Sequence to fold (269 residues):
Amino acid sequence: MIHTPLTKILVFDSGLGGLTILQALQKKLPSCEYVYASDNEAFPYGTKSAEFLITRVQRVLQVLIDKTQPHIIVVACNTASTLVLPHIRRHFAIPIVGVVPAIKPAAQQSTTKVIGLLGTPGTVARGYTKGLIEEFAKDCKVISVGSAELVILAEEALRGFTPTQAVLHSLLKPLFDAPQLDTIVLACTHFPLIKKNLSDASPREVNWIDSSEAIARRVSALLDNQALAKIGPQGNGSTAIFTAQNTDTNSLSDVLNSFSLARTEYIQV
Ligand code: DGL
Fold:
């Protein structure tokens, strides 16, 4: 009997934001085995320098690849993907899918052609992001807000501390000050974790767009094209890996279980 190995997908982020990508992948590709890796030792990425992030992400991925031997890597972090993809694609032979701001669908779906871009300070400042706007949203007015605070609020929300409407309202204000704005790109994988809170704190209804379903479709297509095994016996189940062990990671087991991450491991980078 031919025994097809289960496809192993490594989903990587600075923190827990990449869980929003993991969830979309699990829904689209339920028979894959997942490794969810958080570089919590270096979290947050959004305020770190480009030099630091390029070296750091490459180093962490090397350790993760050596340990887990994935078939495919998803860099579930806009801050990292808008910077490090060319470097890591040159360095590693494994297929790598990055998560970048969903500016193209936002520009296509906006009726008023006024869209908001909500990311980390790093992501909104990147040349790569400006290139996406130039290429896909030339006919739009794009209002960018880079917030490191929102990343922390999203992490805290996962731990049961819901952000107040007043705080979210003031973070969103520069976007809603534009009366025509009808679409907001959640350009950080952390933000869909608090999408309902963001929407509740908004003064009017807008279309919120994130990259998760598009990424799941992209990974699925890549697996088909590369004839990587997609169907097989259930493996060992999915695993969460952190770069630092502390009281916080010890307390996350319920959260991780809710994303079917039954085991937690730690690596030293
Ligand atoms: N989740 C990440 C992103 O999509 C980064 C958050 C951070 O570490 O600042 O950009």
About this structure: The chain has two domains: 8-100+212-266, 103-209. The pocket of D-glutamic acid is lined by residues 13-15, 17, 43-46, 77-79, 120, 123, 151, 188-190 (CB under 6 Å). The domain at 103-209 is CATH 3.40.50.1860 (Rossmann fold).
